[in-house]
Amino acid sequence: MSPFRSAAIALAFFAAAGDALAQAANQDQMKKNLEKKLEAEFLKNATWILDYDQAKAESKKSGKPIFAYFTRSYAN
Amino acid sequence: MESGTLSEPEFAEFAKDVTLFLHITTRITGRKDEDLLSKVGGRGFPHLVAMDATGKLFGSPNDRTVESFRKLMTVVSEYGNFKAKAEKGDAVAKVEFFIRALKVGDFKKLDEAKKHLATLKKVSKEQKTEIDGLLYGLEVRDIVEPLNQNKDDGKKAELTKSVGKKLVEMDKAGHLPAMDEDFGVFYSVILSYAEQEKDIPLFEKGLEALKARFGDNLNQRFLSAKEQILEKMKDEKEGK
């Protein structure tokens, strides 16, 4: 194998490893953002169900329709 | 909204009558229902929507007040209650359920709705009037479909003319769509037709109808643009 090809393979390897590390760090941050969102004050004003299937099951059981609020934690 | 309506004591009261579901888009890979927002037709944040226990969607509140939330949830409750009674054979409930089904968009085509209506008994005069208004909405959707589907700018004028003529006939007959969305489309197309035909009285009538129906909720940019068109039409007529 030529020295140039070896270097190219090594660079590609380090780039991929770098991407994976960056993604892992990003995912950790996303998880922290979610934790922070779940501490929001408005969630203490009423009981919110966070799982869609559970919300549907609860609605079926109680006969109370679902009021759904969609928000995000990944950005403010 | 989170520090406003959703944090108010009035919202806590409202919450007692509904199942509250909070969905958070997190961008965490592999998280359950991460893409639910797009599945329920949401395009941005925040998004509010009413559903029943099956996940059937009933639209969004008109504004972010608890009063609007309650109105919306009443629609869902009534739909479910009348559906249950209709399924047990209650003739009156069958009509009321049909009305709700029309309102929430269960019927996409006029023919389909008319066929269902023909199967109903005990339709009161008031119910018939309400149903007619909802059916006019479906008729409008059928009429404007070729215009909505058209991607050829060369055919736009011709289609506006043929669609506009049909809507003006409906207008003359007093066949006005009941639902806001259909009403808006109805007169918006009539305005385009009136502009194209340089029909000032028709344009004025359409604009007044929209103002009367929507009041301050009428998009101000839309209103301003249409008022400018009206002025231009008048100037052209006077040879200015």
What does this 3D model show about the protein?
The complex is a heterodimer of chains A (76) and B (240). Chain A contains two helices and one strand, in the order ααβ. Chain A is mainly alpha-helical and 76 residues long. The radius of gyration of chain A is 22 Å and the shape is elongated. Chain B has 240 residues and is mostly helical. The model of chain B has no long low-confidence stretch (mean pLDDT 95). Chains A and B meet through α1, α2 and β1 of A and α1, β1, β2 and α3 of B.
Give the gist of this structure.
With 76 residues, chain A is mainly α. In chain A, 61% of the residues lie in helices and 9% in strands.
Q: Which residues of chain B sit in consecutive blocks of at least 5 with pLDDT less than 50? A: none
SSE order of chain B: HEHEHHHHHHHH
- Secondary-structure element order of chain A, as H and E? HHE
Q: What is the rounded distance between the termini of chain B?
A: 50 Å
Show the largest interface. A-B, 38 and 46 residues
Shape of chain A: elongated
User: If helices are DSSP runs of H or I spanning 4 or more residues, what is the number of helices of chain B?
Assistant: 10
Radius of gyration of chain A: 22 Å
In terms of DSSP E residues, the strand content of chain A is 5-15%
The number of strands of chain A is: 1
Question: What value does the average pLDDT of chain B take?
Answer: 95
Q: How many independent structural domains of chain B?
A: 2
Largest β-sheet summary of chain A: none
Radius of gyration of chain B: 22 Å
Mean pLDDT of chain A, to the nearest integer, reads 86
Biggest sheet of chain B, open or closed, and with what strands and sense?
none
The number of E-state strands of chain B comes to 2
Q: Which structural class best describes the helix and strand composition of chain A?
A: mainly alpha
Helix content of chain A: 55-70%
Weakly predicted, low-confidence segments of chain A: none
Number of helices of chain A: 2
